[in-house]
Amino acid sequence: MNPPCYYFENQFTRYEADFLKASSDRRSFAAGEFLSPPSSAFHTCYYFLSGLVRCYAIADTGGQSPILQFYGPGSMAPCYGQAHDFTVEPYLIIQAISPVEALAIPIPVFGKMLTENPDLARDVLSFQIHQKNNVIVRLLQISSVTSYQIVCNMLYLLCEQDTRLSHGHALALSQESLADLCCLSRMQITRVLRKLREEGIVETKRKALLVKDINALREHCSSLVDRTPQ
Fold first, then answer.
1. DSSP letter for each residue of 129-141
2. The domain spanning residue 121 has which CATH number?
3. Is the peptide bond before 78 cis (omega within 30 degrees of 0)?
4. Which of 18, 136, 149, 173 fits a 20 to 30 Å CA distance from 179?
5. Cβ–Cβ under 8 Å, residues 220 and 168
6. Given 141, 166, 182, which residue is the final one in a domain?
7. pLDDT higher than 80, residue 137
8. Hey, which bits of 10-52 come out as E strands?
9. Going along 60-201, which residue ranges are E strands?
10. Is 229 inside any structural domain?
């Protein structure tokens, strides 16, 4: 059984050549840009070539917006082959965290690919089951995952992306931006970063964070992040 996680990558790398044939619509998204407009249904599947994307839910008034999952290179979101105006879609936001390159595949085109490629259809079904399992587990754990773990999860995933871009672990990220990415208050971020500084895991600078001990940071992540050393 696959363990619950909320970072997905490389699930569909083997089909990248097929995706490139199916769509020439290659799109670039800046950090912070929405892949789909908020409060709207999804009409496009995105296959991610590079970058980091988050999916989170719009919170009820006064509530915290839970981060449901992250997507990296070789993954897709949304991932289904028939257009529906699902009730949940207007409440889900898909947003680039870092600069993202993606192939945009219209949902009907992706649906045709599924009917013509049984292996892809099987892998998509498996991925969807894993995603739904993850969302259920994530929602059940929202009250038990601490703000400390949420920040560690975010910093760890950003460091993983940053390493691929050969920038080390120095993140050009203000505390305000980190609070927004984690869906936490500035006060919560300040407390967590103070503890991480005391433990020698991070060093804070003006609008920047330096992760000094990635292994220690990994150990503080929640079980929803794959903490296996690469």
1. HHHHHHHHHHHHH
2. 2.60.120.10
3. yes
4. 136
5. no
6. 141
7. no
8. 26-29, 44-50
9. 67-71, 76-77, 92-96, 100-106, 170-171
10. no
Task: Look up residue 202 and give its two tokens.
Answer: 């991070």
Candidates 161, 189, 124, 133; CA nearest to 6 is 133
User: Where on the phi/psi map is residue 211: left (φ > 0), alpha (ψ -120 to 50), or beta?
Assistant: beta
Q: What is the mean pLDDT of residues 153-165?
A: 72
Q: Which letter does DSSP use for residue 207 in this model?
A: T
Decide if pLDDT at 2 tops 80.
no
List the one residue out of 29, 149, 7, 154 whose CA is nearest residue 74. Answer: 7
Pick from 115, 141, 167: which residue ends a domain?
141
One-letter amino acid of 104: A
> In this structure, what are the phi and psi dihedrals at residue 103, rounded to the nearest 5 degrees?
-95, 130
Q: Residue 142's pLDDT band (boundaries 50, 70, 90)? A: low
Secondary element (H or E) of residue 181 = helix 175-182
Number of domains the chain contains = 2
Look up residue 31 and give its DSSP letter: T
DSSP 8-state secondary structure symbol assigned to residue 15: G
Range of the domain at 209: 147-219
Q: Residue 228: inside a domain, yes or no?
A: no
